[in-house]
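[09:14] KT: can someone run the structure on this one? pasting the chain below
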Amino acid sequence: MSRENTFVIVGGGLAAAKTAEELREAGHDGSVVVVGDEAERPYLRPPLSKGYLLGKEERESIHVHPETWYRDYGVDLLLGTRVTSVDPHAKEVALDDGQRLPYAKLLLATGSSPRRLTVPGADFDNVLYLRRVGDSDRLKAAFTQGARIVIVGGGWIGLETAAAARTAGADVTVLEHSELPLLKVLGREAAAVFAALHRGHGVELRPRSVIQRITGSGSRADGVLLADGSHLPADTVVVGVGITPNVGLAQEAGLEVDNGIVTDRHLRTSAADVFAAGDVANAYHPRLGRHLRVEHWANALHQPRTAALGMLGKDAVYDRLPYFYTDQYDLGMEYTGYAEPGRYDRVVFRGAPGKQRFLAFWMSGNRILAGMSVNIWDTIDHIRALIEAEVVADDRALAHPDVPLEGLLR
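[09:31] RB: done, structure tokens below
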């Protein structure tokens, strides 16, 4: 394979597949090679803790593209293949089979990996994590009527898996290090909504929990021992304590790394002709005036267009506001913007949080930093527009149900 006009994409997730698509859409007619270390062709990760885990979505539906798409668009998939090193000077990547791939442009979409528990007993066979489709299959098999499930971590993965387990009829306990689940992400007012949601569905929430060890015998765990001496029986322990960006290849290649692969607003790394996108990219966000690494589906979906255009030598900037969503029981939520803990003054609500149907706005002075919609649809685009336009917002107007959000833009 010649280097000229060959674009190599390292990663097997949404960002990798969408970059291949965007390259073809933008007119790249050279070789496109996607290298993924899973045997599965690129797929979406949100269904693994949502619809697929709940049994509402078939396996085929989680893939980014049908199998035929790669043939039709001339995209070469190297699956079950690991990139062992990147040489930005020779402009080559080395594969685990000894092959070396030359490239004209390279995209690193290496994603992230779950943080591992380090307490004794964490290596038992039924201590499970969620990142890949096989992990979701194992959780689905474990979530049965009456099964005792202990979930370590009250973040999005912890709460979404808790909802799936309860929906399947399992007995669920969530261990959270802080006072409320999602406290650091959403702040006290909104975090309390999710705590009430799960308690209302029969989940036992254990705040300020410190794990001493996971108990068990042979290869299987049978419970979790906490520092306060209490022991929670468990048929399965699920760990969701955050993720770590997969920066090993970039670091060894001498790229700038700091909480991910550092990029500029064009998603260019510190090495010539090397770009990064998705979970692993700590990209400069011109609208927010800072570097930001976003661990959510929307970045993996939208950053590839900027990366593809940049790889083709065009001037494209990624300035889309962060966005994420969740589905838990009968609650659907969308969030956009960025409200760093300690950097906002207050949260303004429209509607009743206790009834789990409301809007929330994170405010700094008279500016909206972020907004959330819970079980109220077709509003998130208006919220995004208010933030992007830096509208001078009045609390009373934001809170009043009869004031249209689009009217505030005027």
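[09:33] KT: thanks! The two ends are 56 Å apart (CA to CA).
[09:34] RB: yep, looked fine to me
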